[in-house]
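Dear H.,

Thanks for agreeing to be a second pair of eyes. The structure we're designing against is below in token form, covering all 106 positions.
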């Protein structure tokens, strides 16, 4: 059991994890990477400060997933793509919040 967990962890953190995805899924991920930031920023600009907390968390996790996909396609380790994706999403949310509060004067 322990060996299976270690093997699964090594597979997830290996450099060639992105290479194991089929060509069909790579095309789908490419479309997701291209379309998702436009949708997310549109949703965030329309109602970021006027929505409930769970919806704001949902935007954050979607942005984090987007950046994880971007960093994951650069063939870096999976765990680093999670860390970098989360940090970039937090930065985007903070910048968006400061920009909205500066524009609206709140």
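And this is the sequence the design step returned. I haven't edited it by hand at all.
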């Amino acid at each position: 059991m322990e060996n299976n967990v270690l093997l699964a962890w090594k597979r997830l953190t290996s450099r060639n994890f992105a290479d194991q995805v089929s060509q069909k899924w790579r095309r789908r991920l490419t479309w997701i990477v291209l379309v998702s930031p436009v949708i997310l920023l549109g949703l965030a600009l329309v109602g970021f400060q006027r929505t409930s907390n769970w919806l704001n968390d949902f935007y954050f996790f979607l942005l984090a997933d987007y950046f994880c996909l971007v960093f994951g396609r650069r063939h870096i380790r999976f765990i680093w793509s999670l860390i970098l994706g989360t940090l970039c999403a937090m930065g985007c949310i903070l910048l968006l919040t400061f920009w909205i509060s500066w524009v609206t004067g709140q």
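Two observations from my side: Residues 56-106 form one domain. The two ends are 55 Å apart (CA to CA).

Warmly,
E.
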